């Protein structure tokens, strides 16, 4: 295709396009006229009356365009004109019917103009034939400005070749998709995705490429961001893997610095360890080759410079273009290049371990993103560094310890040698001195204090000891004599005392014996007397009764009364004598101790009581223990307690129950009755001899019984007490040892032999 | 069938009052037994063995029952009991001890020596009569052939 023909085509397209534009405007107006008919009509009437002629009108109609209908009747005035008008309408109709493609082109145009995608038509020489508004917005030029210019004007030099090869492919008839950068009027670059296809004219000849452009600049940016992030993450991961494989502090520092540089584009990174003793940041590694020696030699004081401040304040600090600030510190000996710094502290468990500083010798500033990434990296680095730090500490500690152990061992070795020398030197002397001491001490050990230790001619450290020992021997001698004198005195005193005690004991024994004998005599006398008194009493009683039986008729009422009183008195006296006999009998006999079932004792006691049908004695022989006792005396105890319970009893059904239980080392017996009870104030009195609580006559009894009972229980090493409720009953408690004292003694002696 | 002859009873008792009371008790109970009385232990043995004043067997028939007081001069009741119960010929004679007190220690000893029974000499005469009656009943049921 020749350039000539192209230009022609170009021109025709231009016409078509300008027609289309006009038509578009007309359509818009037509649409308006339907909505605002009245106003429009008014407007056009004034215009039409001056502007429109019939010829114009007919041309409008026949061409199929809008026409001012209101003027129609004004302009047509004869048949010829009407016929022309009809003809014009017929042509219009025909035309409109034959132009549906024109309508579709219209639609197509609308789509093209409103599309989000940019659309460019360019000829085989890449001269722009057509653009839509999206392309204008993309490039910053109007459609008119763009048409006729070369597409290469808007492509960066590095993509010229790409565009050329793509155009060549179009000529081959290929459709393709590729990415192309377009440069805006203002210099901004837009990355676009291009779908391009060849266009052919009706003759099948390639005359243009049509390119549809999608702006993917943002998409690309996002993609790159993702890629960068993924690389950062990769670096971080790599770093952590590498770091975990070494514990050497310098190696860790070097690795961290290198990775930091990889991670964030910079001209180098310096890694510092914080020395808490000097409060300085000591450089361990740097990737900055520029003034390397000075940089590694300079220990940064805490709080000074960007690094010192970041460490002191424990926060990351960005310092861009520090040499613009006259106060900004610099590495001594370093060159004054434009410098941007980013410094972060290294912290582990809140403890400052060190710091890292990134350096850019350009005006490219560190940004917030760099800071965040570096902070994150620092956190990871701090963990790794903490481990190596601890490892170093451990190693140092180990070395110190080893060294100290070595020193101490050597010291000990030296001390040992010295000690051996001293030892052998002293051994001789000690042997000599001891040989002096030995004979004296031997004597001292057997109580002979006559010999002192002979002192050596020359004084030495033993002299004092020997003198001291001699003093001690002197003291011992003195004390020994004193002691002997005192003990002699004491012995004499003791002898006297023993004599006195012996004398007193004998006296006491004699007195006791006499008392016992007297008591026994007294008991014997009471027994014999009361026994003997019974015989005359029986006579008095007997004969009184004979007198009453044989002679009461002759006695008269008064005589009978006296005699009855006499008989009663004798009966009471008999009871009194009986009780007296019983108590004296109990105390005068030395009974035999034997183990007796308590049930048997109670059975014997009940035989002595005159039980009538209204009285019960309740006991379970199987539940009662075997007690070591004087059988005869213990029967008396039970007899007295049972008969007391029945005697001092106003109930129609009198009852005494006997039970026993164990307490520690003792049997406790309980004799409970349902009798009249005893007031608390009498609890002690009832156990005294001849004490009666009641008027004679109310209850029989002599007041001897309980005193005897108490005596017997105490003889048996037991205890007796009473508890009572008036009107309810009384419980007598008494205890008996499970074992007799004599039994215990016998058992003990048996055990000991 | 021969009418049953009441047996002879020997009362060994030193106290005249007690002798009198015992005799009266027998009378009151209409006991027709002949009651021989001796005043001490030695005399009781003379009576049984026909010695001294009782050398004439007619004056001292073999007693069917002996009532023996414990407290006596010369030889007490316990000793008499021991002698008689150790003599095979006379140990079958029932011996009833007369005691002053039911708690008398001698009671136990007399049981050990084989006494047949005992009576507590009560001050109350009526009780004594009852006790004699009991002995009589016992004797009648156990009459020797």
From TrEMBL, chain B:
The protein's name in its UniProt record: Two-component system response regulator
Domain of life the protein comes from: Bacteria
Keywords: Phosphoprotein
Pfam families reported in the protein's UniProt record: Response_reg
GO biological process, one term: phosphorelay signal transduction system
Keyword flag Amino-acid biosynthesis: no
InterPro entries (alphabetical): CheY-like_superfamily, Sig_transdc_resp-reg_receiver, TCS_response_regulator
Record-annotated Response regulatory domain positions: 8-136
Keyword set includes Phosphoprotein: yes
First and last residue of the signal peptide: none
Modified-residue entries (4-aspartylphosphate), positions: 69
